[in-house]
Every structure is written in structure tokens, then in C-alpha cells.
């Protein structure tokens, strides 16, 4: 009996088998996937939210998709003007700056853009007194007004 005009509404993997009168068999698999891929960003072992700021020495980007799988991950690197495509589902970066990331699954669904800013450059401290730079002479400790730091 033919199986035609069937409407498949659920996201799933559908498998079909056809057998002719002579007993020959053919198989087909179709994936209906309307679910967006998921992007996760980790600093060390900590999952970060989108638009987070981290001072981690590196970040790891992980893309997942339950049904059709990930086709590619696209990343706009710090100071970049275009997205670079990666075939890996797990990528690591260490350069300071803002990253923008999205993933595309094998069904063509595109995730939301996730942004993360890495700032692993220590601040510069300068100490001046009456226009004189004292940075190389600064000491840790406390001082009372008019006495040197200890």
C-alpha cells in the first residue's frame, strides 16, 4: 500500500522502506529539524552567558545540534569585519577582544549570535605626585598623611 501525502510535523529522523513486487528493497532517511543549534562558551570549566566579559587566558566554543548535527561554526574575531567559518564543533581562542559566534546545522538552521569579550591584559598602574611619575617607586602598604608607605 502506498504511503503518500503524509504530513510530518514533529522534529525527528524518519526512516522509510520500500519493497517492490519482486522483493527488492530501498531505504531512505529524512531528518525534519527546525530546532536551532546551541552555542556554549566556556572559560576554563565555567559556562559563560552571552555578552559576558572574562579575563580567562582562553575560551572554548562548543556548538551542538541534537538532530541534524553541526555543519559549521562562524566566528568574527576581535577587530574582524567578517565571519570565519570553522568545520569543527569545538574551537579554542585566546586573543583579547570581542568574539561573535553563531552555528549552522545540517538542516540550515542558524543559531542566535553569541558574543563574548576576552580581556586578559592586566591594567597599567601609574602613580604620580605633583607631576612626577612615581610608578617605579610605589610600594604596597598603608601610610598616614605625611609619612612614607610601609
Helix content: under 10%
The CATH architecture category of the domain at 38-118 equals Sandwich
Overall body shape: rod-shaped
Low-confidence stretches: none
Rg calc: 27 Å
> What's the SSE pattern?
EEEEEEEEEEEEE
**Proportion of residues in extended strands:** 35-45%
CATH structural fold name of the domain at 38-118: Immunoglobulin-like
Distance between the termini: 93 Å
Strand order of the largest sheet: 5-11-10-7-8
Count of DSSP-assigned helices: 0
CATH class of the domain at 38-118: Mainly Beta
Number of strands: 13
* Most strands sheet: 5 strands, mixed
How would you characterize this protein structure?
This protein has about 150 residues and is mainly β. The protein has a domain at about 40-120: Immunoglobulins (Immunoglobulin-like). Helix content is about 0%, strand content about 45%. The protein has no helices and 13 strands. The chain has strands at about 10-20, 25-30, 40-45, 45-50, 50-55, 60-65, 70-75, 85, 90-95, 95-105, 115-120, 130, 130-135. The strands form four sheets. The chain has a five-stranded mixed beta sheet, with no helix packed on it. Strands 4-3-6-9 form a four-stranded antiparallel beta sheet, with no helix packed on it. A hairpin with a 2-residue loop joins strand 12 and strand 13. The radius of gyration is 27 Å and the shape is rod-shaped. It starts with 11 loop residues before the first strand and ends in a 17-residue tail after the last strand. The relative contact order is 0.18. The mean pLDDT is about 85.
Amino acid at each position: 500500500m502506498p504511503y503518500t501525502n503524509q504530513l510530518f510535523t514533529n522534529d525527528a529522523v524518519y526512516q522509510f522502506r520500500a519493497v517492490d513486487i519482486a522483493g527488492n528493497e530501498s531505504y531512505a532517511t529524512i531528518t525534519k529539524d527546525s530546532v536551532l543549534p546551541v552555542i556554549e562558551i566556556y572559560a576554563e570549566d565555567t559556562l559563560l552567558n552571552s555578552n559576558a566579559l572574562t579575563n580567562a587566558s582562553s575560551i572554548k566554543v562548543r556548538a551542538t545540534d541534537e538532530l541534524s548535527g553541526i555543519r559549521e561554526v562562524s566566528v568574527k574575531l576581535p577587530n574582524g569585519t567578517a565571519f570565519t567559518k570553522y568545520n569543527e564543533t569545538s574551537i579554542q581562542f585566546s586573543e583579547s577582544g570581542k568574539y561573535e559566534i553563531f552555528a549552522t546545522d545540517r538542516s540550515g538552521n542558524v543559531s542566535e549570535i553569541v558574543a563574548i569579550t576576552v580581556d586578559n591584559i592586566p591594567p597599567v598602574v601609574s602613580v604620580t605626585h605633583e607631576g612626577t611619575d612615581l610608578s617605579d617607586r610605589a610600594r604596597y602598604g598603608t601610610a598616614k598623611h605625611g609619612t612614607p608607605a610601609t
